[in-house]
TrEMBL record:
<protein>
    <submittedName>
        <fullName>TRAP-type C4-dicarboxylate transport system substrate-binding protein</fullName>
    </submittedName>
</protein>
<keyword id="KW-0732">Signal</keyword>
<keyword id="KW-0574">Periplasm</keyword>
<feature type="signal peptide">
    <location>
        <begin position="1"/>
        <end position="26"/>
    </location>
</feature>
<dbReference type="Pfam" id="PF03480">
    <property type="entry name" value="DctP"/>
</dbReference>
<dbReference type="GO" id="GO:0055085">
    <property type="term" value="P:transmembrane transport"/>
</dbReference>
<dbReference type="GO" id="GO:0042597">
    <property type="term" value="C:periplasmic space"/>
</dbReference>
<dbReference type="InterPro" id="IPR018389">
    <property type="entry name" value="DctP_fam"/>
</dbReference>
<dbReference type="InterPro" id="IPR038404">
    <property type="entry name" value="TRAP_DctP_sf"/>
</dbReference>
């Protein structure tokens, strides 16, 4: 009996050790961060956050930083954080709508032309009880928005009308795909890594993608001739931490992390806009900017509103408060738009 009790106690200690951040004899806390891609715009904010936490804790917290996606793709980030394959990372509800169906409201199309207001509204929404529950269900604590990039349209032929959209073969995801489906337009789900070749061969003739930074960095300005530089939606990419790892942190470290994470909301947008200066100028040189006229834009807004209703109705059909979350987010967004304008 003593042997059984000893083995059980040992097992409990082992499980607790797996759930906790790594600590040394000197009580240095090591948190493992995994990026699904290499160093770049998608993790600018997280790198700033980690630098600040290390500095403000005077080295008490250290991050092991793993770049290039050796532990999994973007779509696998939530599950890997959940099980503790690593402690912290970015993910997107766009790639995991089944796991974060309500958080994905932040990817709906044409919500605002103010990216700073949108990212601040997302930060507030993700801390509401209803949406935070999605993170908790995945054994995660939400930290901050990460890089909230603009998603814009590039094409081989100018697109100025809804009929032009219908004539194109468009690669899209997230909110852009939702509104195209509302307009009864076929959406092509080409994986990102295959998209340049597909666009060159005109398997797709248009793409609604991260721009200007990603579009320029991956050569789409040399593939496509036309660019609609209006933000179709903002790509939500929250950063979260394994909940067991978070709970194991001492209170003083939690306080520093929460202080830095709130500062990261604005800093993330500033860093991205600075990184986009060169890309924006280059993409304007490489492409011709085209836009919808007022009459066509009015039709798009009508389709947008119908898309919102369809999105909320679909969540309600799944037993989720889709209309409440949509209305809450629109109200939060309106508040932050007003604050930006004041």
């Amino acid at each position: 009996m003593k042997l059984v009790k000893s083995l059980c106690a040992s097992a409990l200690v082992a499980v607790a050790a797996m759930a906790a951040p790594t600590t040394s004899v000197a009580q240095e806390i090591n948190l493992k961060y995994h990026a699904f891609t290499g160093k770049g715009p998608s993790n600018l904010a997280t790198r700033w956050f980690m630098d600040e936490v290390e500095k403000r804790t005077e080295g008490k917290v250290k991050f092991t930083r793993i770049f290039g996606g050796p532990l999994g793709k973007l779509s696998g980030q939530p599950e890997n954080i959940k099980v503790g394959a690593f402690d912290m990372g970015e993910f997107s509800p766009v790639y995991n709508p089944g796991l974060f169906p309500l958080a994905n409201v932040t990817s709906l199309p044409f919500m605002t032309g103010d990216p700073m207001a949108h990212v601040q509204a997302g930060h507030e929404l993700f801390q509401t009880a209803t949406v935070e529950a999605e993170f908790t269900a995945m054994n995660q604590k939400y930290l901050f928005p990460g890089q909230w990039g603009s998603i814009q349209l590039l094409s081989h032929e100018p697109i100025r009308t809804i009929d032009d959209l219908k004539a194109a073969k468009i690669r899209a995801h997230g909110g852009a795909a939702e509104i195209l489906k509302q307009l009864d337009i076929t959406v092509y789900g080409i994986p990102w890594g295959e998209l340049p070749a597909a666009a060159e061969r005109k398997v797709v003739t248009a793409a609604i993608i991260g721009a200007p930074a990603d579009a320029y960095a991956f050569g789409f300005g040399e593939i496509f001739s036309y660019w609609d530089d209006v933000d179709w939606f903002y790509f939500p990419m929250p950063v979260s931490i394994n909940l067991d790892a978070w709970n194991a942190l001492p209170d003083d470290v939690k306080a520093v992390i929460e202080e830095v994470r709130d500062e990261t909301v604005v800093q993330a947008r500033i860093l991205l806009e600075e990184a986009e200066v060169e890309a924006d100028a280059a993409l304007h040189e490489l492409t011709e900017v085209v836009k919808f006229d007022d009459a066509e834009w009015a039709k798009m807004i009508e389709a947008r509103d119908a898309t919102y209703k369809s999105w909320a109705d679909a969540r309600e059909a799944d037993g989720l408060p889709g209309h409440q979350v949509l209305n809450d987010f629109l109200m939060i967004l309106e508040k932050h738009e007003a604050n930006q304008g004041s």
